[in-house]
Specification:
The complex is a heterodimer of chains A (565) and B (398).
Chain A (H helix, E strand, L loop, with lengths): L7 H5 L2 H13 L11 E6 L6 E11 L2 E10 L4 E9 L2 H7 L17 E22 L3 E6 L4 E8 L5 H35 L1 H16 L14 H5 L6 H10 L10 H13 L16 H4 L11 H18 L9 H7 L2 H14 L13 E6 L10 E6 L4 H6 L11 H5 L4 H14 L6 H15 L1 H20 L1 H13 L2 H13 L5 H9 L3 H25 L22
Helix pairs in contact in A: 7-18, 10-12, 12-17, 15-19, 18-20, 20-21
Chain B lengths: L3 H12 L13 H7 L6 E11 L2 E10 L1 E11 L14 H4 L21 E2 L2 E2 L5 E9 L3 E11 L2 E9 L7 E10 L3 E8 L4 E9 L4 H10 L2 H6 L5 E12 L4 E12 L8 E8 L4 E11 L2 E10 L5 E12 L7 H6 L15 E10 L3 E10 L2 E10 L7 E11 L1
Classes of the chains: A alpha+beta (565), B mainly beta (398).
GO cellular component, one term (chain A): ERMES complex
Protein name (chain A): Mitochondrial distribution and morphology protein 34
InterPro entries (chain A): MDM34, MDM34_N, SMP_LBD
Chain lengths: 565, 398
């Protein structure tokens, strides 16, 4: 294994680094002795690169790297600073004191500013460096210990030994702070600009979005860390929901470019090697990005959602490559138009925590094999997605709020016990015709396996249909959003399966019953829901023309789960 | 414009016969008043009261970004019989402008202060206590002022603020004023700073002059030449023990006395030999309501220089035409009973400009019962942000 560090481009152009260093030096409140801006006039990284010894590599992926190095530097880098200092000690002393208790000297505090030029050279550094690289979060470089061994300070006052010694001491102290605190920050910002110009663009867009929305909606992709809250079944406010559902139509604005697809392919290729080079992808959010806490919560912006879902597909592709049921996402991406792709992906992720895959209208069943998910079973568990009669229902199941259920953490860790308990509860409430959920699951699993092979082939067609239907029925989708928040992912999953068993019934019936308490209200909602559902069903029958066995059942609208009340 | 509490402190100095101007620190008071005035930041309201001759309170509410304010209380053991209503306060007392140097006053004899009662001395030293609490930043200012003897005064000022090093600072200042010369010794807890200031007035010693006039005959008195001006020289010296650094300056001043027949003027020169700083100022009272001042700074080490110019213009109300004829008919020796020194003053305009085109303008005066200060500062070099700050300060006192 070898790494190739290229030192020469770093020394070619240092103007940007110089500017950043200047701003960094002037940002923090300066000591009163410095009366002017500190300007970095010269910055040369030298021709001798630092020696790096790899001690440990903790994480290595195409968009991630974490390692510990031992660094030693005895190069010829130098740095020249220019500023003006106040030479009168009384002046600097008084400038920080309140005037009420100041001696208020007449002229003894008059200032004498002296231009000062300091050159730092002959750096001797050695220390342990922790380097964390992440495509989203940029480069984080931390020194574990104080790396500065020695340096040479030459200044305007070299002829005065007292001042020279003082400066040497002060600057060494300041540099230690710089290496430990400021340098990581500067490098981080530089890396963000260098590797992900989209980051800033998206930042801007996010800011715009935030400004537009009076209520700040929660972006499920931006903060998947909050997902457990959702999984426990805690309801989200109606206001938040409405804002979320209002945002979702923007998803359809995105478009796919051939160039990005090419880059995706390259990225996929690069995974097979240890090359640190990863092509920069425009409008792409990686798994690690989505985990960023620092991102604004609102951000329901188009590129974000789409790209993050994309990246999810990508990551699932990487992790589930052993599972035979996983379809090649890049293929579907190319064959389908982007909006439909988005809709599909988000909908499936929203359906359950077990990452259901696409179910085309003709092949109504699909299953996903997750090797990591159900550790409590001890076996490889397969959750099947009994598909609804038409893709539109599936589409309706995709509130943005439920998307975070599919976050990275959930993929790798088994659900926690409280989650499980709630799930069981929900099963009892909503599914009364099943003996045990597990057996049901197994059965479905078996069923699914048989139909699995045909799924991939029909993905593209399904996508197109799905997007079409989605655009037609925003109301439906909205109602579904409300429903999904009040119920658990698994419950939703089951209810959906139930739907497939029996008569077609509105998904909203459940949502309304779970959210509202009044009988009248419920009845009205039921009526409305039934009507809409009928329309939907008719539409689907017309389009898909498939059997009634998988149609949504009516027995879903049982009593609402107790926890969601 | 002086704040109400500063005004009360001035009244205390006056009542206790302390010449505040006879100090090295006040050597350039005229130039400072004309060139270094502060423009008020934002809106500031001041409500004050001298509720009894010994006790004063003042409340301030300001809005600089956030609403802040201060409460201050003052106690004086010496009854202060000064005008406290803002409608009656003499504007010349609260607005600092050109300072007319007065004849030096002979210090009180110590036995003048003695009060005996039944064979025991019962006189107490005059003391002033002052405290001010700033909210919401919770900063406290305190002042202790004591006239130890007719020629000596102790002033201790403290600031308590959590943002300061060690949580606060104390400054002790011991002042001696013998008329002919004055000395000050100071100590600040910040970096253990010691300081000394001294001022010497050339010319006749007021103590001897007083004795001379009492002992000599009238013929000898005529022989004494009246003095038209006063020449003073002073120096200051500081040394901080903790940071092992010091500072010093020397200065001279010539100012005309009221006996001077021409227009009054003041010239100062201060030199900081350590830092190579030279500062000269020239102020002239060009008319009854106009004063001009210029100051030139130069540093012999860094060749930096600065030039500042300022003026002070007192605006007087024109006598109304309807009573003009009546005013003319008044006998010359008839004194109007209610005429004050600032009867016809409606306000003062102060303006300054320096070589970097920093301009400050201040308009001070009285509307009805309120004293107001309206100020603005500009920077003509910055095209995008010419106005640096505008502020209004209103004071009401009773």
């Amino acid at each position: 294994m070898a790494f190739n560090f290229n030192w020469s481009p770093l020394i070619a152009d240092t103007s940007r680094a110089r500017d950043m260093l200047t701003t960094a030096l002037n940002k923090s409140p300066k000591p009163p002795i410095i009366v002017d801006d500190i300007i970095v006039t010269e910055l040369n990284l030298g021709s001798v690169p630092p020696e790096l010894e790899i001690l440990e590599i903790g994480d290595l992926a195409e968009d991630k790297f974490r390692g510990i190095f031992k660094m030693a530097y005895t190069g010829d880098a130098f740095l020249t600073l220019k500023t003006r200092v106040q030479a009168n000690p009384l002046n600097t002393y008084l400038s920080t004191k309140p005037s009420f208790a100041s001696p208020q000297p007449l002229a003894a505090s008059s200032g004498l500013t002296i231009p000062l030029q300091i050159t730092l050279s002959d750096f001797r550094l050695s220390g342990f460096v922790i380097l964390v690289f992440c495509k989203t979060k940029g480069l984080t470089l931390v020194f574990r210990n104080d790396p500065l061994e020695s340096l040479k300070v030459s200044s305007t006052f070299d002829s005065i030994p007292f001042v020279r010694d003082y400066l040497q001491k002060e600057i060494e102290g300041q540099l230690r702070v710089l290496f430990m605190d400021d340098l990581p920050a500067i490098l981080h910002r530089l890396s963000l600009r260098l590797w992900s110009p989209e980051y800033t663009e998206m930042d801007d867009e996010r800011v715009l979005n935030t400004n537009k929305d009076a209520t700040v909606p929660i972006d499920p992709l931006a903060s998947p860390a909050q997902d457990p809250v959702d999984a426990f079944g805690n309801p989200i406010d109606e206001s938040e929901l409405s804002s979320l559902s209002l945002d979702s139509p923007t998803e359809t604005h995105a478009s796919f470019s051939q160039k990005n697809l090419l880059r995706l392919a390259t990225l996929k290729e690069s995974q097979r090697t240890l090359s640190l080079f990863t092509p920069s992808l425009r409008d792409t959010v990686f798994r690690a990005w989505a985990g960023g806490i620092d991102r604004p919560e609102s951000a329901a912006g188009t590129p974000q959602l789409t790209s993050s879902t994309l990246s999810r597909h990508h990551s699932s592709l990487a992790t589930n490559s052993s599972a035979h049921s996983v379809s090649d996402n890049s293929d579907t991406g190319t064959s389908s138009s982007r909006p439909s792709f988005i809709g599909r992906s988000s909908s499936y992720h929203g359906l359950s925590g077990s990452r259901p895959r696409a179910h085309p209208p003709r092949q109504r069943k699909k299953r996903v094999v997750d090797l990591r998910k159900n550790k409590e079973d001890g076996t490889e568990s397969v959750s099947t997605e009994a598909s609804t009669p038409a893709p539109s229902v599936a589409g309706s199941f995709e509130p943005p709020s439920s998307i975070p259920e599919e976050k990275e953490g959930e993929l790798t860790t088994p659900p926690r016990s409280p989650n499980k308990a709630v799930r069981f509860h929900s099963r009892q409430v909503s599914i009364d015709d099943l003996d045990t959920p597990k057996t049901e699951e197994r059965q479905r699993h078996d069923r699914a396996e048989s139909t699995n092979a045909a799924i991939n082939a029909s993905n593209a067609l399904h996508n197109a249909l799905l997007s079409d239907l989605e655009s037609k029925m925003p109301l439906h989708r909205h109602a579904r959003n409300a429903h999904s928040t009040s119920t658990l992912p698994l419950l939703r999953n089951y209810s959906l399966e139930k739907l497939s068993h029996a008569k077609p019934v509105p998904p909203y019936a459940e949502s309304s019953s779970s959210s509202s308490g009044g009988i009248l209200e419920q009845a009205w909602m039921m009526k409305m829901a039934n009507e809409i559902a009928r329309k939907v069903r008719e539409e689907k029958m017309g389009e898909a023309g498939s059997d009634g066995f998988w149609l949504p059942s009516e027995d879903v609208d049982g009593p609402p789960p107790a926890y969601a009340a | 414009m002086l704040g109400f509490m500063d005004y009360v402190q001035q009244a205390f100095y006056e009542a206790s016969h302390w010449n505040h101007d006879n100090s090295y620190g006040a050597l350039t008071a005229t130039a400072k008043a004309l060139l270094d005035f502060e423009t008020p930041p934002g809106l500031r309201l001041n409500l004050s009261s001298l509720s009894s001759p010994n006790f004063a309170t003042s409340y301030t509410v300001g809005s600089v970004g956030v609403v802040d304010g201060s409460l201050s209380y003052l106690y004086s053991s010496l009854p202060l019989k000064t005008e406290s209503k803002s409608s009656d306060i003499d504007l010349y007392h609260v607005i600092r402008g050109y300072r007319h140097a007065q004849d030096l006053r002979r210090p009180d004899e110590p036995w003048w202060w003695e009060i005996w009662h039944e064979g025991k001395r019962i006189d107490r030293r005059d003391t002033l206590l002052y405290g001010r609490l700033f909210l919401p930043r919770s900063s406290l200012e305190a002042l202790y002022l004591r006239r130890i003897s007719p020629t000596r005064q102790l002033k201790v000022s403290c600031v308590s603020d959590s943002s300061l090093v060690n949580g606060g600072t104390i400054l002790a200042l011991l002042q001696n004023d013998y008329g002919k010369y004055s000395t000050e010794y100071l100590y600040s807890t910040d970096s253990a700073l010691f300081g000394f200031r001294g001022l010497y007035n050339f010319g006749l010693d007021p103590r001897k002059a007083a004795k001379l006039s009492t002992s000599s005959t009238a013929a000898e008195n005529i022989a004494i030449e009246p003095t038209y001006g006063r020449f003073s020289a002073g120096a200051e010296l500081y040394y901080g023990i903790l940071n092992k650094s010091g500072g010093m300056s020397t200065g001279i001043r010539f100012t005309t006395l009221p006996q001077h027949t021409g227009f009054p003027y003041t010239m100062t020169l201060t030199v900081n030999p350590l830092m190579g700083n030279l500062s000269t100022s020239y102020a002239v009272k060009a008319g009854r309501s106009l004063a001009l001042c210029s100051r030139f700074d130069f540093n012999v080490y860094s060749y930096e220089s600065d030039l500042q110019m300022g003026l002070e213009l007192w605006r007087r109300q024109q006598p109304t035409g309807t009573v003009d004829w009546a005013a003319k008919m008044i006998r010359a020796d008839w004194k109007k009973p209610s005429l004050r020194a600032d009867e016809d003053i409606s306000g003062v305009l102060k303006a300054r400009v320096d070589q970097n085109w920093n301009i400050g303008i201040l308009w001070e005066g009285r509307i009805k019962e309120l004293l107001f200060t309206l100020g603005a500062s500009f920077d003509l070099r910055k095209r995008d942000k010419i106005v640096k700050g505008v502020g209004v300060e209103l004071q009401y006192s009773s």
